[in-house]
């Protein structure tokens, strides 16, 4: 039961973190707006809430001496995934801070990042956080105030990562993966390659059939022309 809860929390954290990265890349672009900054704030706060829940669950389980060896190995694997996800979140938060300073909303200027994207991003954030409607009550200087909060939250995430290392020491190189690196990608590629191969074989077969027909037509035409020329030469002679 605890293992399923940890996996569910980790899956939710992965989705929200991926959503946050997607929106960070639009800062300074054509879809940047006050609503986007508010979405970024809500999304990263949701990610931090999930991170705290993940940390508490996994820390309690990994400190429990009664956990079996197999279960402990699985929880250590989840811990490594969680730590990596938290590092990615911190990197994206720092990126959002830098881009926020470079592209303040209260200073009108031309967008320097032409992403080719336009429109709102509330749908992405809502799907990631299972919220149907996100309403915004943003202040005019949301970007200025939020950058200060973001800087404090980055420090909090850094402190959380440090405390995690102090409480539970799980070196990444000691955790064994359940499958080979890139196994899912390889299986997907192999399936795609096999389907592409079947298509290419069928196309080659059809192409060969067409080429045989054309070759036969050309040969027949040449033969007819040769016969006609031979008849003409005999008549002239």
From TrEMBL:
This is R9BP protein. The keyword Transmembrane applies. The keyword Membrane applies. The chain crosses the membrane at residues 213-234. It comes from the Eukaryota. GO terms for biological process: negative regulation of signal transduction. Belongs to the RGS7BP/RGS9BP family. InterPro entries: RGS7BP/RGS9BP (IPR026512). Keywords: Membrane, Signal transduction inhibitor, Transmembrane, Transmembrane helix.
């Amino acid at each position: 039961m605890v293992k399923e809860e940890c996996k569910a929390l980790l899956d939710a954290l992965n989705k929200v973190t991926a959503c946050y990265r997607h929106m960070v890349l639009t800062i300074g672009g054509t879809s940047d707006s006050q609503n986007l900054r508010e979405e970024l704030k809500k999304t990263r706060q949701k990610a931090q809430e999930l991170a705290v829940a993940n940390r508490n669950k996994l820390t309690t389980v990994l400190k429990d001496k009664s956990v079996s060896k197999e279960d402990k190995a699985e929880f250590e694997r989840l811990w490594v995934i969680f730590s990596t996800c938290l590092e990615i979140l911190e990197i994206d938060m720092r990126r959002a801070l830098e881009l926020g300073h470079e592209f303040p909303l209260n200073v009108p200027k031309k967008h320097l990042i032409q992403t080719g994207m336009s429109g709102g991003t509330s749908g992405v954030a809502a799907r990631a956080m299972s919220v149907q409607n996100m309403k915004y009550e943003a202040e005019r200087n949301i970007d200025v105030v939020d950058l200060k909060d973001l800087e404090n939250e980055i420090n909090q995430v850094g402190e959380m990562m440090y405390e995690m290392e102090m409480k539970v020491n799980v070196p990444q190189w000691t955790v064994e993966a359940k499958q080979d690196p890139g196994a899912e990608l390889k299986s997907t590629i192999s399936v795609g390659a096999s389907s592409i191969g079947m298509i290419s074989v069928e196309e080659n077969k059809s192409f060969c059939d067409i080429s045989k027909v054309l070759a036969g037509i050309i040969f027949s035409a040449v033969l007819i022309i040769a016969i006609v020329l031979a008849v003409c030469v005999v008549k002239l002679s």
